Amino acid sequence: MAMKPHRKKKLLAIVGGVLALSVAVGLILYASGQKMNLFYTPSEIAQGKAPLDQIIRVGGLVKMGTVEHVDRDDSVLETRFVVTDKAMDINVTFDRVLPDLFREGQGVVALGRIDEQGVFVATEVLAKHDEEYKAPEVLDALERAGHPVKKDD
Amino acid sequence: MWTWFYQLASPKWFYEISRKLLPWFTGTTLILFLAGLTLGLLFSPADYQQGNTVRIMYIHVPAAYLSMMVYVIMAVAGAIGLVWKIKVAHIVSVSCAPVGAMFTALALLTGAIWGKPTWGTYWVWDARLTSELILLFLYLGFMALHSAFDDKKSADKASAVLAIVGVVNIPIIHFSVEWWNTLHQGASLSKFEKPSIEAAMLYPLLIMIFAFKFYFFTVLMHRVRTEILLREKQAKWVKAMITGETAYSASENTTEAK
């Protein structure tokens, strides 16, 4: 059964409207570019894409073997680590409580500012977890079999 | 092939068929929830990084999934109502909104509760969380717009247009974690490769998603039936049913035959 002409017209108007709107929204999102991102990667900071006079977020993986805890002169425990996107690195310092998931090789998003020495002084560190869900036993088994899952850089 | 389509258009037909379907949907919902919750909360393993916190997933993921699915159903039903002027389609669209809003609120709430112990924060303005919050506002806007009209027909039309416009947000929510860098992790389930989630966690999760789906269709049917009665209160079949429920159901076939 063929559709009645006025219904076809209406349907076309709706489909056309949604398509036009999608293109418009797509262009707006495309134009907003970097602003839609939550954080800058170390590479983007190295390329000077991040505003250095503002509070920004930097995101990446905590580089293996770089986490150190230092007792500062004002008796505050400071954590120093390197955030990497596997191309560029950035040094980060943080003197507050770290989230439970913070560890080497883990994704993090830090909020803060880059000081004169080029060190990112964070006031907040969030752990970013990946989309992998595994039981601990499986991980042990994989490691025993010689296929450790831990991501390394 | 269009007969079923036009049959659906009849509120009376929908009222009849949904009465027969409801017990099955209610039963399936209960069984799926029982199975999913037992497997998910008691028998699935803890995550290698998150420990038992990962169990929020069995509520969070289905709620987020349904929040988007319900929106698409709401918009498609609204569009069908606009094009074919089908009463039931508009009723379905309108009945979707509060349920969808509930799923969205649940997804946001469980996400916040999950975010605190894993990420270290309840909320962050990343693309995924923000677009899901916009979804909640779309649902609330739809409900507010619909209730702003005295005339149901104008209300149906206006809110259907709003629902269709808001559909643009759905792919944004879904792909936000790929298009931009976000705190929210990428998809574990809906990608073409093997799901990056262990089978012992995947099955309870899939069962929970089906439980949420059946729950939604059960609640939707209840809402649609109530809305049909409200709107068709002047119709003969509704009056007959209310004045004498027993007489109505007993003489259902005989009155048809007359």
Automatic annotation (TrEMBL), chain B:
Keywords: Cell inner membrane, Cell membrane, Cytochrome c-type biogenesis, Membrane, Transmembrane, Transmembrane helix, Transport. GO terms for cellular component: plasma membrane. Residues 26-184 form the Cytochrome c assembly protein domain. It is a multi-pass membrane protein. It comes from the Bacteria. Its main location: membrane. GO terms for molecular function: heme binding; heme transmembrane transporter activity. It is found in: Cell inner membrane; Membrane. Required for the export of heme to the periplasm for the biogenesis of c-type cytochromes. This is Heme exporter protein C. It comes from Aliikangiella marina. The gene is ccmC.
